[in-house]
Amino acid sequence: MSTVTAEPFDLDFDVASSALVFIDFQRDFVLPGGFGEQLGNDTSLLLAAIPPAKEVLARARQVGMQVIHTREGHRPDLSDCPPAKLTRGGKTFIGTEGPMGRILVRGSKGHDIVEDVYPIDGEPVIDKLGKGSFYATDLHQILINKGIKTLFVTGVTLEVCVHTTVREANDRGYECVVLSDAVASYFPEFQRVGLEMIKAQGAIFGWVAESKQFVDAVS
Ligand code: TIU
């Protein structure tokens, strides 16, 4: 058993029953020319999460902790994209051509994960339709089969896909620790409040720790 220093209180966990989750580190969110920028955001704020994410990824691989990646996106014919999702954001953009290929479409360069945290063999990649990683995916079954109880969570964006995933996971009984410097938002205020919301009310959705505290805990 290990213990991670976290807020609102320290949490015991087992490396063998934990997973490190990387939410949507896709070019479409973190680089100019993708979905995030088309929504009117400055994508540069998201880049700050990548070095800490890369560091915890290396450590998890070193100690044999399960690693899981997710990607938000759709089939090329967009038959799995809710019409309501296609029309929002100010203009119609999912599926349109951008500098990194068709936006949020599986198989395009923009849809894929950045090199710094790219998956390797043995690390499941969950392709999801929505913001949460459990809705319409096999993530819950994979976690059950692997005996996972604790999720350390990194990714983008904090208040959208990370929050939705943590809330879904919390309701399914997982203990979630959000790594504060390895998650990012386009909005500094949402980053601050998003982290507060996780750990408020005695860990209402989960815990918050820094990536260094994760590294220390598994060392
Ligand atoms: N727009 C935004 O902040 N996020 C998303 O649309 N998806 C994810 O968070 N991955």
Structure, described:
- This protein has 219 residues and is α/β, with parallel strands linked by helices.
- It is built from eight helices and ten strands.
- A six-stranded parallel β-sheet has the order 7-4-3-8-9-10, with helices on both faces. A two-stranded antiparallel sheet has the order 1-2. Strands 5-6 form a two-stranded antiparallel ribbon.
- Strand 9 (175-184), helix 7 and strand 10 form a beta-alpha-beta unit.
- The protein is globular and about 50 Å long.
- The mean pLDDT is 97.
- Bound molecules: tricarbonodiimidic diamide (TIU).
- Tricarbonodiimidic diamide (TIU) binds at residues 24, 29, 39, 72, 131, 156-157, 160-161, 186.
- Tricarbonodiimidic diamide is lined by residues 24, 29, 39, 72, 131, 156-157, 160-161, 186.
Give the low-confidence spans: none
Strand order in the largest sheet:
7-4-3-8-9-10
* Structure class: alpha/beta
User: Quick one: how many beta strands?
Assistant: 10
Assign a percent range to the helix content. Answer: 25-40%
Bound molecule types: tricarbonodiimidic diamide
What fraction strand?
A: 15-25%
Which outline best applies? globular
Quick check: average pLDDT? 97
Outline the biggest β-sheet. 6 strands, parallel
N-end to C-end Cα span: 12 Å
Based on CA atoms alone, the radius of gyration comes out at 16 Å
- List the total number of helices: 8
What order do the helices and strands follow? EEEHHHEHEEEHEHEHEH
